[in-house]
Amino acid sequence: MMRAIGIPAYKPDIYAADAIVGPYPYYEEMRRLGPVVWLTKQKVYALPRYAECKAVLRDDKNFGSGQGVALNRLTNRLSRGTTLNSDGAEHDQRRKLVAHRMLPRALRSISDSVDAAAADVVDAALHKGDVDGVLDLAAALPLAVVPDLIGWPHDQRDHLIEWGGATFDILGPLNWRAIKAMPNAFRMLRFARRVVRDRTVLEGSLAYELLAAADEGKLSHDECPPLIVDYIAPSLDTTMSAISNALYLFATHPEQWQLLKDEPNLMSNAINEVVRYEPPLRAFARSVDQQTAIGGVTIPAGARVLVMYASANRDEREWDEPAVFDIRRDAGRQIGFGQGAHACAGQGLARLETTAILRALSERVDRIELTGDPMWAINNIIHRHERLPLKLIPT
Ligand code: HEM
């Protein structure tokens, strides 16, 4: 694909390790260049501003996901059969088969057990004193809750974080990092196929219900593995990112932590502000079948555009002082969970878990203190800490 005349080009590689660790100056420069920017390295039209990202996400007729949302063909082929990688009626049907399990009404039945699990996780961390915010808090709750809900069998759970991270890594360009992640992403898919073949999913779970639907002829059994991967792959890293980002932000903004403790009704907005400020997912692509205009710029047929959720959420055209973390700001319109037809199907669960852990912490912890330098994980798509040394100071 060639760059259309008049569209500014951006040469730095936003998938290089430096840009993954500290992406915001890169995004700021791209937003300054214009509403559509040609990424020289990836040969794709990037949308760094809020208005264009939102418009494209809402226009799933002109900006499709069916040819894949990754920046490389291999992953786009591998992702066939998923909800994420589908359009129109096919997408509606796939979403209908599973997503109802993640709606607030369906999740109500597990909310007490999620609260209890969060209380256990926080009590164990308090007992320890010095903790790793990622392992001891951010990973502990999703691991305790989500594999059971989805129905992943007990063996192979040790690999879930690694396999899930790899499944995200390969959704970037086909750089060295994505190539290295391929074997683990394949393992996840292969194991999902085996789970369906051997019918080892947990009874009553999301995957169990999906298999029952296949038995009734509502879909074929071959269609089940990608749909299970659709839900198990993003179920850990994303929420780990939101929780660990929240821990970091509240540790470095103690006045905001005090505010949340004093005004618990700010919780839902606080989660939106965390996801606005540090979006767990950086960007996904869409394809353009027919020549289309975005932000007054003509995009040629056959092009791919990159929707940069994480840049949009810091766009100074949309947000006052976007680099300020403020749980009182109106953050509800952030697009860190996507928007439109493909908006995150699991956000109810992610919000439930993040709320549970922050509530358990706010009831027990006076201050969250950083005790060392945090370390970012290097992943093409997921923006999360690898390590976050913390001390919890009890109330
Ligand atoms: C803080 C946590 C999370 C964030 C920030 C997040 C973010 C996103 C985003 C941005 C999309 C849109 C993709 C697109 O535009 O193409 C998405 C889609 C999706 N998410 Fe999440 N996600 C989170 C947690 C979860 C969880 C816990 C699950 C499942 C257990 C999940 C399952 C899905 C699925 C199945 C889709 C595809 C929906 C579709 O294509 O219709 N997500 N997520």
Features:
Cytochrome p450; 395 residues; 3-stranded antiparallel sheet; 49% helix; 6-stranded mixed sheet; alpha+beta; single chain; binds protoporphyrin IX containing FE; globular
Secondary-structure map with pairings?
Blueprint lengths: L8 E2 L6 H5 L2 H10 L3 E3 L4 E4 L2 H9 L4 E2 L8 H6 L9 H11 L5 H25 L1 E3 H18 L9 H10 L6 H23 L7 H10 L8 H9 L4 H16 L1 H9 L4 H11 L6 E5 L3 E3 L2 E3 L4 E4 L1 H4 L34 H18 E6 L4 E2 L8 E3 L1 E6 L1
Parallel strand pairs: 1-2, 3-9
Antiparallel strand pairs: 2-3, 4-6, 5-13, 6-9, 7-8, 10-13, 11-12
Helix pairs in contact: 6-7, 6-16, 7-12, 8-9, 9-11, 12-13, 12-16
Bound molecules: protoporphyrin IX containing FE (HEM).
The site of protoporphyrin IX containing FE has 28 residues, from helix 11, helix 12 and helix 16.
Order of helices and strands: EHHEEHEHHHEHHHHHHHHEEEEHHEEEE
The backbone outline, from C-alpha atoms, is: globular
Provide mean pLDDT, rounded. Answer: 95
Largest beta sheet: strand ordering: 1-2-3-9-6-4
The CATH homologous superfamily is called: Cytochrome P450
Q: Briefly, what CATH class?
A: Mainly Alpha
Number of helices, counting only DSSP H or I runs of 4 residues or more: 16
What is the architecture at the second tier of CATH?
A: Orthogonal Bundle
Overall strand count: 13
CATH topology: Cytochrome p450
Total count of domains:
1
Biggest sheet descriptor? 6 strands, mixed
Mind explaining what this structure looks like?
By secondary structure, this protein is of the alpha+beta class. The chain has a single domain, classed as Cytochrome P450 (Cytochrome p450, Orthogonal Bundle), CATH 1.10.630.10. The protein is built from 16 helices and 13 strands. The protein has a six-stranded mixed β-sheet, with helices on both faces. A three-stranded antiparallel β-sheet has the order 5-13-10. Strand 2 (37-39) and strand 3 form a beta hairpin. Helix 6 runs antiparallel to helix 7 (133-150) and helix 9 crosses helix 11 (224-232). It is globular and about 60 Å long. The mean pLDDT is 95. The structure holds protoporphyrin IX containing FE. Protoporphyrin IX containing FE is lined by residues 57, 65, 69, 83-84, 95, 230-231, 234-235, 238-239, 242, 275, 280-281, 284, 309, 336-338, 342, 344-347, 349-350.
